Amino acid sequence: MAAQAAAPQLTKSKPEGIDLYARFALAGALGCSITHGAFTPVDVVKTRIQLDPATYNRGMIDGFRKVIQSEGVSALATGFGPTFAGYFMQGAFKFGGYEFFQKKIGETLGAETAKNNRTAVYMVSAGSAEFFASIALCPLEATRIRLVSTPGFANGLVGGFGKILKNEGIGAFYSGFGPILFKQIPYTITKFVAFEKVSEAILSQFDKSQMSAGASTAVNLGSGLLGGFAAAIVSQPADTMLSKINKTKGLPGESTASRLLKIGKELGVRGSFAGLPTRLFMVGGLTAGQFAIYGDIKKLLGATQ
Q1: Which of 20, 33, 113, 162 could form an SS bridge with 15, CB 3.0 to 4.6 Å?
Q2: d(CA 159, CA 103)
Q3: 77-117 tens-digit pLDDT
Q4: Which pLDDT tens digit goes with each residue over 219-240?
């Protein structure tokens, strides 16, 4: 009896090109939208503290109590729609873009040069990715802030977005683009660089190939938490200004730059850091969750480079 021919071995090829970066983007989109959506109640209180510090002047817990007493528990979910949609888009561009720019910069510089200058590579990759991510986020963030800062403004994402577009035009969505870049680019650079440095320091103490999935997730959580704390402090003044500039439309003929200067003078240094404890709690938790979810989904999708 003749020997049977061996069945051909099917090898699963690693994703590459658009397929690879689409997986990075999906992992980032899910990480950011899930975490930001879950933290919507904290974001509502944080925004109220920034916009009305005279009323919300006794911290996060008291802020929750005042919102619930005056508007009901459902007010804590205000802005969930634009938050989830906006950060789904932003997360795709941010994490997918970070991986893309890291790869392209590495190819341009060469592996050895890129490794020796990896902090600079992290910074340029994060800043470049965030620029495009902010373009996607800005209209939805403007809608979220208007919904949170003006109770009764509209009934959710579609109503709020449509009302701003109809009454103020498309330019209103980007009145906060300067502040959002001023906030998001330093925030994202700090977040990624701190995450990379902390995780490098932790992983240098262990054999990475022997680490369990749970241990890898724990490293991502811890590194993300510290990265989030650093990013929150760096970007807090711009976050406060963004909330202020999106609360109301400008006066006729008033430029964004003049509005920013006026808001900056009104706030001062102390006012610029209003709501920082709440934001530290929020951003630390967000960033820890994002990196943990991103890392796990990347593995699930087989997205490595």
Answers
A1: 20
A2: 40
A3: 988 988 899 899 999 999 999 999 999 999 999 999 999 99
A4: 999 999 999 999 999 888 887 7
Confidence of residue 12 (pLDDT cuts 50, 70, 90): low
Taking every pair of C-alpha atoms in the chain, what is the biggest distance, in angstroms? 92
Taking alpha carbons only, the member of 51, 44, 60, 32 closest to residue 280 is 60
CB burial readout 148-163, b (16+ within 10 A) else e: bbeeeebeebeebbeb
Domain boundaries, the chain: 15-168, 189-304
**Cα–Cα distance between 9 and 6 in angstroms, integer?**
9
Cα separation, 165 vs 106, whole angstroms: 41
Alpha-carbon distance of 241 to 264, in angstroms, equals 7
